[in-house]
Amino acid sequence: MSHTPHELAEEFPQHADRIHLLKTTDNHFARLMESYHEVNRAVHRAETGLEPVDDLTDQKMRKERVALKDQIATILAKE
Questions:
Q1: Are the beta carbons of 64 and 58 closer than 8 angstroms?
Q2: 79 falls in which pLDDT band (50, 70, 90)?
Q3: What's the pTM?
Q4: pLDDT tens digits, residue range 47-62?
Q5: Cα(69)–Cα(71) distance, rounded to whole angstroms?
Q6: Residue ranges of the domains in the chain?
């Protein structure tokens, strides 16, 4: 299990400029990003033991993070 935060700029380094542009110009993308960051921070806190969670909650958070990342990747892949 990795204890490294999965920040979007690290996950999509080739799209750093586009991420910045979209988060300031596209409300839907900005909401997806904020949701991703909230879930990502919760997963990281659980991984590091700051806020332990049960296995079911951990799986749910991880699946939500993947779903949000997939939506963000789809948007970034356009154009």
A1: no
A2: low
A3: 0.88
A4: 999 999 999 999 999 9
A5: 5
A6: 9-45
Cα→Cα distances 8→13, 19, 35, 77, Å = 8, 8, 12, 14
Q: Say how many C-beta atoms besides its own lie within 10 A of residue 13's C-beta.
A: 9
Q: What size, in residues, is the chain?
A: 79
- Assign residue 53 a region: left if phi > 0, alpha if psi is -120 to 50, beta otherwise? beta
Structure tokens at 51: 């806020």
Q: Tell me the CA distances in angstroms from 46 to 14, 23, 36, one per residue in order.
A: 28, 27, 15
Alpha-carbon gap, residue 48 to 4, rounded angstroms: 9
